Fold this protein.
Amino acid sequence: MANIVLAEDDAAMRGFLDAALTKAGHKVKCCDDGAEAFAYLKTAPNVDLLLTDIVMPGMDGLELSQRAMKLHPSLKVLFITGFAAIALGDKKRINAVSKPGQVISKPFHLKDLVDQVEKLLAA
């Protein structure tokens, strides 16, 4: 079981991801956006994985991950996005994150997401 912070601005997607990860045995803290996730991360003692959408209003997932890893240096990050072109355009920003991040593009099967989370946690 891992402690996962999920930052996703789409409520339906957030619900699907939360259900899939919880069913897989993980503890998930859902956040509506990057700012809420960062506020939680400032007080969270033990977080294993940040699962964040890249494109969100306010603090995007890339900024969130950079700030989060300053608080939790061993934090693993998995980016999700529905905007593949943006993800490719932000490749330099993704690579600038101190720990290598992974990107999974929407649409994806929830089983594939859970598998990728498990793989990243095991690495």
Observations:
- The longest helix spans residues 11-23.
